[in-house]
Amino acid sequence: MTLNGWLQIAVFFALVLLAAKPMGLYMARVYERKKTLLDPVLGPIERLLYRVTGVDADAEMGWIEYGAAMLIFSCATLLLTYAIERLQHAIPLWNPQHLAAVEPYLAWNTAASFTTNTNWQSYVPESTMSYLTQMAGLATHNFWSAATGMALAIAFIRGISRRESKTLGNFWVDLTRGTLWVLLPICLVYALALVSQGVVQNLKPYDTVKLVEPQSVTVTGTDGKSTTTLVTTQTIAQGPTASQEAIKMLGTNGGGFFNANSSHPFENPTPLTNLLEMLSIFLIPAGLCVTLGRMVGSPGHGWAVFAAMSVLWFAGVLTCYWAESQPNPLLHGVNQRVAMSGTAQSPGGNMEGKEVRFGVANSALFATVTTDASCGAVNAMHDSFMPLGGMVPLANIMMGEIIFGGVGSGMYGMLILVIVTVFIAGLMVGRTPEYLGKKVQAYEVQLSMLYVLIFPLVILGFTAVSVLAPSFGTSSLSNHGPHGLSQILYAYTSSAGNNGSAFAGLNANTHWYNATLGITMLVGRFLMMVPMLAVAGSLATKKIAPESLGTFPVNNTLFTVLLVGVILIVGALTFFPALSLGPILEHLLLRSGISFS
Amino acid sequence: MMKHIVTALLYTVVTAVLLGIGYPLAVTGLAHVFFAKQAEGSLISRNGELVGSHLIGQSFSGPGYFWSRPSAAGTGYDATNSGGSNYAPTNSALATRVTATVQTLNPKGTNAPVPIDLATASASGLDPDISPAAAFYQVARVAAERHISEDAVRNLVAAHITQRQFGLLGEPRVNVLDLNLDLDKKAPVASK
Question: Taking the complete model, does pTM exceed 0.80, yes or no?
Answer without folding.
Answer: yes
